[in-house]
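Query form — protein Helix-turn-helix domain-containing protein

QUESTION: What is the three-dimensional structure of this chain?
INPUT:
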Amino acid sequence: MPRSTFERGKSNTTFVGRRIGAQLKRLREEAGVDMPDLDRSGFMSRQTLWRLESGQGPYSEVKVRALCGRYGAEPDQMYKLLEMTERWRENSFHEPYGTRFGLYLETEQEAREIVAVHETVINGLLQTRDYHRGLCELIPPLTNADREIELRAQRQSLFFERDDASLTVVMDESALTQRVGSSSVMAEQIRHLRRIASLPNVDIRFIPSNKAHQAMIYGAFTLMKIDDTETVIYMESFNGSNWVSDARIVERYKRVADSIIAAGTTDIREGTA
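ANSWER: The structure tokens for Helix-turn-helix domain-containing protein are given below.
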């Protein structure tokens, strides 16, 4: 028996498409709107709605705006969806999302397992406010650095309030030895790392500078396991960022991550700062 349109699977979608679809479905359910109602009223066919909510697409600004208006979405919710829609690419293994960070933050808050490897600065979830401020001073002037720092703190609070997620971070040893801000800022940052490392769902490791490892070839990336069926890889560069959701490629990165984790040490040395 041939598969119907409504039975098409994940292989027909991209990660960004699935995130758009999940958010549209959430907005519809929160608004108490049923698919059949929209179909009968002529607003949008049930088949089109199913394709949009399941990640199939195709997505357009007109459709997203119409649905957001029908569901009474907040402006910021619609803006995020329009940003993702703009960068949606059907059937792409590497899914560009530009330089905006919204999709990453939302995925981070839903992921059950996060593994970040080969970072040369302290991971964002582990940074103190003063360390983050020191990093902000190294980039072009921000319109509101205090707001960025507050948002980072809120991001950390949301993640560490959860009891259903684990975090593994493997950093280059230089993250401990390269001073950001003053000596006192680094000293407090390292004390903070020790406190966070004591949490049962956190594993912080460092790769000694005199030890060869696979990250020297593959570079930095973040593996995010959302559930038993969805794991994605996030990679960031100066020009933007990429999401990789193809299962074959993700499996390859998992093996690399395991190797890099094994190469790391949990010793946060005294006097590093």
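ADDITIONAL NOTE: The chain has a mean pLDDT of 80.
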